[in-house]
Amino acid sequence: MSLAEISSANDAHVVAVAHNGKLESEVCANEISDSEASQHVDSDHGRLPYPELLQALTLEEKVALLSGSDFVRSTGIPRLDIPPLKIVDSINGVKGSDLHHGTPTAVFPSSTLYGSTWNNALMEELGACLAQQAKLKSAQVILGPTINIHRDPRGGRNFECFSEDPLLSGQLAAAIVRGIQSQGLAACPKHFACNESEFKRRSYDVAEDYNGRTVREIYLAAFQELLRGCEPAALMISYNKLNGVHTTESPFLKDMLRDEWKYNGCLVSDWFATKSTAASMNAGLDLEMPGPTVFRGQRLIDAVRDGLVEEKAVDESAARVLALVEAARSSVSGAPERSEIRPETNALALRIASEGIVLLKSDHYVLPLDMRRAPKIAVVGVPATEPVISGGGSASAPPQYIQRPLDCLREAHPVPSLIQYVRGVNTNRIVPTVPLAQTMSQTGEPGFDIAYYNSGCDEPAYTERQAVPVVAMVRDLKPGLEETGFRYEISTTITPASTGVHTLAARVTGAFLLFVDNELVGSLSEQAEVSMEDFLFEPARLEHRISVPMVAGKSYHVRLVTNARIPKENDYEPTPHGAVLCYEEYVNERASIAEAVQAASSADVSIIFAGRNHEYESEGFDLVSNSLPDAQVKLIKAVAAVSHRTVLVLNCGNPINVSPFVDDVDAVLNAHFPGQEGGQAVTDILTGKTNPSGRLATTWPKQFDQEHVPSFDHFPARLTDDGYKIQYAEGVQVGYRHPGVERTAQWQFGFGLSYTTFEYSELVISEVAHASITVSIGVKNTGIYPGHEVVQAFVVPPKANVWRPARELKGYAKVWLLPGEARRVSIELQKKDAFSYWDEAIKQWKVEAGTYRLVAGPLSEAWTVEKEVTWSGR
Ligand code: BGC
């Protein structure tokens, strides 16, 4: 990458600069309005686009445009050749119509890994590639990126978000949006705003003022940074409330997004986040998703006729939906969804994974492994053979293929047989579905027989045979089923591989009976409240386990009978019906650990694969704890105790509590959720083919308590007399902005090791203009490997009346250097964004007079370079 490329890669801002070179006195320390520096000043703001088209539409047609037609489509108006748009998840893998499973697709890493790449140019390439993937699914709008903030390390969807830092989140996301939209598709970043927790996400109230400092400087700042760097065709409005009002009805949509930030794109509700007709229309929410509509359609027509909503509001929203259609219409196609494995896509997925995996610890020269010496390696852990590629929920997508790290390692080894694999302990949170290979259906083939019965009938209305023991019906029931009162049965014959007290489990939405050889072994007369959320995202809540003694080689006929749920009255979401039959054989934890210990003790190096998977980190719920399950901790400690050298590879979205074992191991690699090329990326780093260049986008605390995690006691929402509430009580002290971070962090924001070393030289302020300044920093690769360095530029404010974080990230650049090579890296800082804080009294950004320090280099290192800048008052 050339210098020019580097600076443009980080130059999300297009600013007209006056080159008068004077720092003091040229800009006064005072408040700066947002519109002053906004690039989105639209002289046409307030004038409706598409006036002719709008005039041609009837009120009914305009209203029709304002809600979806089904789960993934907007509504088209064929009479006027306005097509429906197909709107799909997401930026780590573009799925098709089935938002929660879908057609296989190229699965890229999760966003926390993207955050750790610190590479805007790479993200822009990713965006363009995602658009190509969306075209294979005949989709026009991609739901993402998600730029909520890593506020607390238990946030269930943090893996889907980039960072604890708003600037890094906003810039990387903007690059992805630019990439997507450069291909004639539309992006819909989300979730606006303050959606940092999953527990009670549909209803909790973030009890913070949107004109307050906390929200402006951290949570809204990510979106503001995004809008500086791109013009997303749409934005998704979140489920939660902010300051007592649902965001889909909040005045901040108009007052802040439209008037102050001049954002003109289409505002789309998160799925089922629209809660009203008039209130959401009058607040400026343009599109209710999904369809068919609940709150618009005839209800909205009536509201217009009754004077509750002005037709002008309908026109404005319809114009914005039309603009969205226009932005993406060139890619509208009715082609069937398909998956295409393309080498260039895989290469990009590999490059991203390689740039975002973070080497957290590397002692005793254990890494990189020198494969030429044919080391004897013990590979331990389930994720080495059942790779974790993504977190759970709407962001997870069905991969085209999965690489097993064990296979990749063997391929990189001159004598593959010198790699011994031991599975170790179980890493799953829920009981897995019955493995097909151990089953037999009525036909004598492996499989499951499924039968659906109407109430009181002994003859099934419908039968089918499946390879998976899963029934899931939301809106569409199986042919012949009546709306209510039906039941369905999943049956098969299971042959255990071992003798023991094994576990059968039913994950059901209704009352159930479980039979083994016609004997009732488990039942439930009434399933507790089950929401769409639980059904889609939190299988653990629906799980019932039953222990059954079983003998190896014997056949057991297993039948799970589940009743239809009784629909809730006045529920505008469809009633979910589902059942999953699960089975797991007893694993003797001690014996498994002993086996791993034996393999490790005779190896030159042990590589342990551990961490969390999508059952722990997912949309729909938050983590209960940051500790690894006991069994994994025991395995790591036992293996490390006997290994000559130990390398630990962790899969996770959120930080893990490594304190129980970090001193026992020689190296730690944070592989995040690395996507379908993850196995290769991890192998390339372990073997030195790739020099690691990922840097943490979020601080890893030493412990997980109030002392180490500022949000700890205020997460998740608490039930109050006024419903579920969250207070962002830690204010702006999120992650590295916390004053005690040096003491409380295991690894700070920006930290990550390389196989080479870098030296920084002089920071020069090369250009000063009215709105921006450019700094340049010399960086040299002083080691023996080529590699990327991430240059991080922080601003340290002067002592002032208001408390401010000790330093804040205001720019960054990633540079590739050969051994011995030196370059100067340029970073442009926007004055208003780099030096100001949000002054609540005047509801404006304010730059205080005084001397600021510009510091370049990772937070945790002493070898930073710096320069002072003085801004004076008038
Ligand atoms: C999620 C969104 C997602 C949508 C569509 C919702 O549950 O919050 O992020 O885009 O579903 O799948």
TrEMBL record:
Keywords: Carbohydrate metabolism, Cellulose degradation, Glycoprotein, Glycosidase, Hydrolase, Polysaccharide degradation. Pfam families: Fn3-like, Glyco_hydro_3, Glyco_hydro_3_C, PA14. It comes from the Eukaryota. Its EC number is 3.2.1.21. GO terms for biological process: cellulose catabolic process. Residues 443-597 form the PA14 domain. Pathway: Glycan metabolism; cellulose degradation. It catalyses: Hydrolysis of terminal, non-reducing beta-D-glucosyl residues with release of beta-D-glucose. Coiled coil: none annotated. GO terms for molecular function: beta-glucosidase activity. Belongs to the glycosyl hydrolase 3 family. This is beta-glucosidase.
